[in-house]
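Box 3.1 A note on notation
Throughout this textbook, protein chains are presented in two layers. The first layer is the amino acid sequence; the second is a token string describing backbone geometry. Keep the layers aligned when reading.
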Amino acid sequence: MAYVILTTKPGQFRTEPGPGLTPVEAWDYLFCGRKRAGFVIAELQSPSRVRIIDETGPVNSVPTKFLEAFDSVDEARAELRTLTAYRNMPAELRPA
């Protein structure tokens, strides 16, 4: 199995998994106490598409082959920690 990370930024865009993607975990990214993004780690069971819905209207459908894939949930979590760490700034990644 492979795992991918789906991202949603409140007020900007949200992602929706298509068939063949099963959400496993959800995380909130808080910066200075404010939610800046939401992440979903999803299991990729078969090639699929992800809908990216822009808050201003446009909708895109992106094939999962363009997403970075991880061999395990632990590898995906480690990538999230890397993406959300910024020096000594008050950033927090917490289960949603």
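The first strand starts at residue 2 and ends at 8. The two ends are 23 Å apart (CA to CA).
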